[in-house]
Every structure is written in structure tokens, then in C-alpha cells.
Amino acid sequence: MEPGDRLGPYEIVSPLGSGGMGKVYRARDTRLSRDVAIKVLPDAHSSDEKSLSRLRREARAASALSHPNIVTIYEIDRVEAITYIAMEFVDGKTLQEILAAEQLPISEMLGLAAQVADGLAKAHAAGIVHRDLKPANLMISKDGYMKILDFGLAKLVKDQNALDSDAQTESLITQPGVIMGTLAYMSPEQASGRAVDFRSDQFSFGAILYEMATGKRAFQRDTQAQTLSAVIAQTPGPIAFVNPQVSPAFQQIVGRCLAKEPTDRYGSTQELCEKVRGETKDCHSALQEHSKRPGPGLSRLCAGAGNHHQSGDKGCGYRAADQLRCKVPHTRHRPQTGWA
Predict the structure, then answer these.
(1) Is 132 designated active site?
(2) Which residue in 9, 33, 39, 120 has the fewest CB atoms around it within 10 Å?
(3) pTM of the prediction?
(4) Torsion sign over Cα 286, 289, 292, 293
């Protein structure tokens, strides 16, 4: 589609991107004078009933949710041979784009992680599993809100206690044994083509947290086969080996999310959310306390966390993980443990 083309009441403005489920455009809702995102199926698949069914499934699953960290679905419709979903337009960058450019300060990383966990907890409480959680499906708006995108692989679980039986779930699932999602962020059960539940998203979330903390993908290998094998059978290296500044509690959260057996993960995503919130609160408290400490040298503003810290011959005292945002020469940073 080209700028100026119309889909019902929506006027196409510009392309935003494309994925396995179709192309996404920025558009203008001429009825309400607002910007929206429009997802349409590729022309080659516009008559494919299976693709259409998956697109409708995405709309049904996501529109059942109302949460500030989940993208809002407005409607699904078909104009001539084009089926589309109109959804909230998020002006910002994906987490994938941000991580490719820089390593986030721990305080910012935890704040964003808490928003993802909160959105997932809401979805899981409604019986909706994302199944394709990855940095490319997490959008951070210019005002700092994290939005979970693309429930195109969502499965509505009728009974969350029926963990192993597809017959006890509503038929919003893919064919048994078909591997879907992005390999490096899949859970072992998903990579094996087995039934999944909300704990599969917890594993994907753990892989995202690992990447946010280390700058490395936990299971990415040279080939698809090697990546699948790593997801199913290998344990990533300890986070502390790459980033010794993260707290033991955070490492425990990631480790539990990345447990190979679903029963070893969190019993509910609300519990996981509360753990991440607790770490975020502890981190912010430590930063506030750190900002009050007297010390030698010139006090400078650290753009990453919005607090002042001391620099001088003894180093600035700010976490090594946050050096990217610190204006003090990196040679003056001294390693510390914990958040402060």
C-alpha cells in the first residue's frame, strides 16, 4: 500500500515495518482524527483462510485486554481483498532497536521490565498467552511507556490448570507440533512443539531480561538447529560473569524464569511481577540514598538515572553498568556490588 491509500475510514500515512503475520502501516483515522497502526496480511496470503484465522485470533485476544502496557486493538475488518487490524499507534522504538544501540542502566532496565511483567500478568490472568514475546514485540513510547505488541500467536487458555491438554483449551492454537515464535526466545516446551501455557511467556521474558542485563542473547547460536538445542538443553552463562553489578535477587528471578521445566518457574505471573517490582523499588531507593552521600570532587548529573554522584580521584561511585549514560570519564568508575 502507498501513502494516501484508503482502508475503510483509514488513510495510509507511511509503512512502519513487516513481520511473519503481515505488514504494518501508520494511518490516520479520518473519523476520529487520530493516528493508528494498521496491520494487513501480505497480498500473497490475503486469501489464505489459515492466515485470516490467525489475524482474527490476534484481534480477539488483544482486544479482550485493557492495560496501559498492552497495545489497544480498535477493530478488525476486511475491505475487498484486504483484511486488517486497526490498533493503537505507539510513537517510539522497539526494545530490539534500543538494545542494539546501547546497554540500559540497571534502574531503567528494571523499570521497563516491571512494565512488561505487569502487562503479562494482566494477560495471563485473562487466560491469554502471547507465545511470541521478544524485544521486537516490545515498544517503548517517547514518554517511557512499554507496550506489548503483536498477539498474533496468542492462545486463549480456557483453563489455566489444564497445562498439558490442548483438548481442554479453546481452539485458538496452532496445529500440534508446529514450532512458532522466534527461536532464541522460545521456551523449551514451545521449541519442542509441545503444549504451552503462561509459563512459556515467563521463559521468554527471562531470555529478554538476560539480554537486557548482559547485551547478549541467552540462547542464540550460529544455526537454527543449534539455537533450538540450546533452548531445550543448555543453560546460559551466569549474568554476573558479564555484568557483576546486577543483584543476586535479579539473577535469581532470571534463573527461575529460564528453568527448563515449567513447574520450576513461577506459579503465577503476578508473583513474578511482584518480584520484579520489588527489585525496581530497591534499586530506586538505593539510587536516592546514593544521591545523598557526600563525597570528594565535583558533583555531576548522570543522565541515566537522574541522580547526582561524586567524581574525583576515588572514582564517581556510579555503577559500571551505567557508564554509557555517565558523563564522568570511564577510567574513574570503580566497581561496586549491588545496586548502589
Answers:
(1) yes
(2) 33
(3) 0.77
(4) negative
